[in-house]
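Continuing the series of single-chain predictions for the mutant panel. This is the parent chain; the variants come on the following pages.
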Amino acid sequence: PMELLMFGALISAVDPVATLAIMGSSEVKCDPLLYSLVFGESVLNDAVSIVLFHTFADENKRNEIYTIQNIPATLLNFAQVSLASLCIGSVVGLTCSFIFKHTDIRTYPKFEIGLLFLFAYGSYAFSEALHLSGIMALFFNGLILSHYNYFNLSTTSKVTAESILSSMSSLSENFVYLNMGMGVFTGRFKNWDPLFIILAIIFCLIARLLNTFPCSYLTNLWREEKITGQMQVVMWFVGLRGAIA
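Parent structure:
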């Protein structure tokens, strides 16, 4: 059962890289609401999937029979790791924003960009050192920095940091897919089960169907700008297995 839970946590990661690249094109003229929904789900879902996977992996290492009595402890561990990682990422982000706002470091763009990257990596490294989720800490650190610290940066640092981060993001995604593609032809994946692959795809689509439409319906109950049926269909199909999975 634990292997199945690990696989479920892993395969539930949503990372619609290709979809967002198409939606972000000026020629497509995608609705901003749809883009925000897909992007927001992908980045938050990846962080949660990684934490949940590691939680199940730690339980699996104990070599104990997993019963229903173990579920509360697993959920508590997941909540503790998530909350602690959130706090670390937020505190580091707020500290960085405070320093950038109340110092004259913006007059030295080279050091400004370097310090920005060090604070971001610091939240990740500190969380990992405490056996928490570095990915989730980095995610919330990025949210804080983008909301509070962006306006503290000099014009040069804004342009440079955005270009560097965008390039690194694209390169990382390409390296992941390149590594996976080379693995197929170099014999790294030796055991294939076509039936398992087909069933996994079918059940992923069914599970996504049972999540996307009911959640959208509940959200529309108090939203002024409704999530239309066409948007919900797009959100259903863009739940591709990406770099994280």
